Amino acid sequence: MSPRPLVAVVDYGAGNLVSIHQALTSVGAEVRIAAGPAGLVNADAIVVPGVGAAAPAMVRLERQGLVDPIAAWLADDRPFLGICLGLQLLFEGSDEDEAVTLGTLPGRTVRLPDAPTLPHIGWNQVERTRAHPLFAGIDDGADFYFVHSYAGAPPDTEAISAAPEYADGLVLARTTHGQPFVSAVARGSMVGVQFHPERSGTDGLRLLANFVDLVRAA
Amino acid sequence: MLRRRVIPCLDVADGRVVKGRRFVDLVDEGDPPELAERYAREGADELVFLDITAAPERRGTLLDIVERTARRAFIPLTVGGGVRTVDEMRDVLRAGADKVSLNTAAVADPGLIAECAGRFGRQAVVVAIDALQRAPGAWEVVVAGGRTPTGLDALEWARRAVELGAGELLVTSIDRDGTGSGYDTALLRAISSGVEVPVIASGGAAGPADFVAAVRDGGADAVLAASIFHRRIHSIADVKAAMAAAGLPVRLIPQAVA
Q: Considering only CA atoms, which of B215, B144, B152, B138 is closest in space to residue B183?
């Protein structure tokens, strides 16, 4: 593996790519913006960023010929980071607009229940449910920046915090806004975060550096 | 627990940070990306750029500043001032902004809020409301930098903007702006109690106690200020320490330099 792994950041028109590009570059990745399947060739990892609604995002990914390559990438358990909408798209569907999404992960994207304000905008604590190298060197309960109204809800969310049998489960961390929701997941080489590490100051950069380390080790 | 945000606002004209009393007597206060990076280091939770460049042909300068800032300060950036179309919003987001704040253009064409929210998501659409008090408990929306009355009731406009797709409201008291007499907590409370989205308080901050009042009495989720930070009258750390002492949840930066 090269010292600067090649990370393909998927561009499907869902917002600001400057900060994720710059943040990944600053922690040692070679970044390529990928607007089609050709952009994924020879990549060591894929990052799907994005904010907004699921249905238009799926339409754009489909139109750009990216749905099948991303699904195949995930099926092969290759290094992947989904951020915000990029995580939500991994679930089966979204209650926001009834979109059918990739279905890599069990469960649906649902509106945050009992939230005192929506969208949930700002810094909130990310509380880990198990150890994972993605959070190496980051305090449990550290603040990260969120901006969303919906979040992926794996079916076993309720059982996660207490049950030891979920110690190696999907959920990595939870955050509370009204009710607790899942704010980070991992399965194999796939990781996903509901917050924006590229907008979360030094802890965010640390998390991205940890991801790049995981890519190097893959 | 969601933290209450402290947001420095940078008024930008022709590529420089300026401050005057509401668009007059402008004083050059520095390079925007440099100031942005300093604020991020000192614990700012977000940044707002308000472009007060009058001439549309100079918009390219703003996009360049947004991009240079996004490359240096890894905290969220909202850009306001002069965005009139979905395409202009797209350009600002592509340059590295996370949110765009709509003001005069949204009053002129409320459909713009829905269009922008439909295209980029409501979380990217901040509607800025400049309010002037007309009677106790009654405020009128004013535009064009506070000079032009609209006849719109500020509370009604706030609710309408949210229905149309605003993900956040930036509420400025024109009566208080630049006066240092504290935020208009009655205005903030009236608006924040009527909408589900976060409300950002603006206009009138003189000291840390004003930030506490905006959240505690006004129900604001975030508090914005400009000159007291630029001129180093108070640091972000001072303000956050006062908020924390008042029992408000804030994000404290251990390595922050005051």
A: B215
User: Which residue did the predictor score with more confidence, B50 or B21?
Assistant: B50
- Domain annotation for chain B: domains and CATH numbers: 5-245 (3.20.20.70)
For residue B57, with 0-12 CB atoms within 10 Å meaning exposed, 13-18 middle and 19 or more buried, which class applies? exposed
Q: How far apart are CA B12 and CA B47, in angstroms?
A: 12
What angle do the packed helices B59-70 and B32-42 form, to 10 degrees?
A: 30
Residue A52's pLDDT is: 77
Strand intervals (E) in A86-209 = 93-94, 108-111, 120-125, 127-128, 143-148, 150-153, 171-177, 179-187, 190-193
How far is residue A137's CA from residue A125's CA, in Å, rounded to a whole number? 15
Q: Mutate one of B74, B120, B169, B197 to test the A interface: name it (highest A CB count within 10 A).
A: B74
Q: What is the rounded CA–CA span in Å between residue B100 and residue B50? A: 10
**Cβ–Cβ of B2/A123 closer than 8 Å?**
yes
* Complete DSSP assignment for B165-184: T-SEEEEEETTTTTTTS---
Which residue has tokens 């300068």? B61
In this prediction, the residues of chain A whose per-residue pLDDT falls under 70 are: 1-2, 14-15, 156-168
Q: Which domains does chain A have, with CATH numbers?
A: 6-217 (3.40.50.880)
- Residues found in chain B: 258
* ipTM for the whole complex: 0.92
Work out whether strand A143-148 and strand A120-125 pair parallel, antiparallel, or are unpaired.
antiparallel
Q: Do B198 and A122 touch (CB under 8 A)?
A: yes
Pick from A217, A204, A182: nearest CA to A79? A217
Work out the average pLDDT over B82-99: 91
DSSP letter (8 states) at residue A118? S
Residues of B in contact with A96 (CB under 8 A): none
Assign B51 a pLDDT band (cuts: 50, 70, 90).
Answer: confident
Mean pLDDT across the stretch B11-28?
Answer: 70
Q: CA-based angle A161:A165:A170, to the nearest 5?
A: 65
Give the CA count within 13 Å in the CB-facing half-sphere of B100. 34
Looking at residue A13, the DSSP 8-state letter turns out to be S
Catalytic residue among A84, A96, A120, A177: A84
Omega prior to A5 cis, within 30 of 0: no
- Per the structure block, which two tokens stand in for B225? 């200020």
CA torsion angle A19 A25 A29 A33 (round to 10): 50
